[in-house]
């Protein structure tokens, strides 16, 4: 039976939110052994060695838990394996010792639990892994800076990655100095590791499939794991679900058929859709859509604004999931 997505109202207990802080299915098999450094870019091999050292449970770093926690910051462009290494770190330590989530998932956690309860819950871990650290929202950045500072002061270690625009490699890179300026006092505990190299996915201009036919949408939505939604209904429904519950909202969805997609009307809608796309991508879902081309989802004004990198990431992930949908429905 297919899944009725619109109208879902998942109830997620605080302990479930914490338990969900593990690498997503997309990185379920990530390990240090499966990270293959490009020999043409020695920084990749050096980064692998640094993260292995950070993970080692019997090093001086982890024996000295009475002092402040330490930090590791992986700086690099898209597709050089930062998330793979961060997920490998979390897997190496295990779910009882390492929490793993994106920057947005942690800010959503603070919103759902409150700052004090979120800090108390996270301080139980040896390492908190923060993927895709963002500086586009001053309020969220200050919250995370305070959270990281208080966690490290209490002895918890933090590992983070940046998210750099594909066309900002080099002179436009999200630099360590910017990071240090934003997080102020906590910066003293961070060691910055630069990872260079091309995008292993060879990400170039977006190349979406043509809008899906009714037959393809029906095929994708049918059966266990399939879901369908009219775009306007889905966008309206997201208002009623806290972003910390988007993972539960799409639980079990393997294939999503979107009907009558139209450009988003405002930035609040756009940011909710970005969060939903991230949770679907993390779970290796596939998507087909009718209506306008997915490249038109975000308006030109949105793409010129401060959240541009979020929208680019969402479009790239949508493209990947849309092509995967075609492979999924292709006869063997």
From TrEMBL:
Residues 68-187 form the AAA+ ATPase domain. Gene3D superfamilies: P-loop containing nucleotide triphosphate hydrolases. Coiled coil: none annotated. SMART domains: AAA. Keywords: ATP-binding, Cell cycle, Cell division, Nucleotide-binding. GO terms for biological process: cell division. The keyword Lipid biosynthesis does not apply. It comes from the Bacteria. Pfam families: AFG1_ATPase (PF03969). This is Cell division protein ZapE. It comes from Demequina litoralis.
């Amino acid at each position: 039976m297919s899944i009725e997505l619109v109208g879902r109202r998942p109830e997620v207990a605080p302990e479930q939110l914490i338990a969900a802080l593990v690498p997503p299915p997309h990185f379920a098999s990530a390990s240090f052994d499966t990270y293959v450094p490009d020999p043409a870019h020695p920084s990749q091999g050096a980064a692998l060695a640094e993260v292995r050292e950070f993970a080692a449970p019997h090093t001086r770093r982890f024996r000295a838990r009475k002092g402040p926690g330490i930090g590791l910051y992986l700086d690099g462009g898209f597709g050089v394996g930062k998330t793979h290494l961060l997920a490998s770190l979390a897997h190496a330590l295990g779910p009882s010792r390492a929490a793993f989530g994106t920057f947005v998932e942690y800010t959503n956690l603070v919103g759902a639990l409150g700052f004090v309860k979120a800090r108390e819950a996270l301080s139980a871990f040896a390492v908190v892994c923060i993927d895709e650290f963002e500086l586009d929202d001053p309020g969220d950045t200050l919250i995370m800076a305070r959270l990281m500072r208080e966690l490290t002061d209490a002895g918890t270690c933090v590992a983070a990655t940046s998210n750099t625009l594909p066309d900002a490699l080099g002179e436009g890179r999200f630099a360590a100095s910017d990071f240090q300026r934003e997080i102020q006092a906590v910066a003293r505990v961070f060691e910055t590791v630069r990872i260079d190299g091309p995008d292993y996915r060879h990400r170039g201009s977006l190349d979406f499939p043509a809008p899906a036919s009714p037959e393809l949408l029906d095929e994708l939505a049918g059966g266990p794991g399939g879901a369908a939604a009219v775009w306007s209904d889905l966008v309206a429904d997201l208002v009623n679900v806290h972003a910390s519950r988007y993972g539960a909202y799409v639980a079990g969805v393997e294939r999503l058929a979107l009907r009558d997609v139209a450009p988003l009307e405002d930035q609040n809608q756009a940011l909710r859709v970005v969060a939903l796309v991230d949770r679907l991508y993390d779970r290796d879902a596939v998507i087909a859509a009718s209506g306008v081309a997915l490249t038109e989802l975000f308006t030109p004004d949105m793409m010129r604004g401060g959240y541009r990198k979020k929208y680019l990431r969402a479009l790239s992930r949508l493209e990947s999931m849309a092509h995967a949908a075609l492979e999924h429905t292709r006869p063997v």
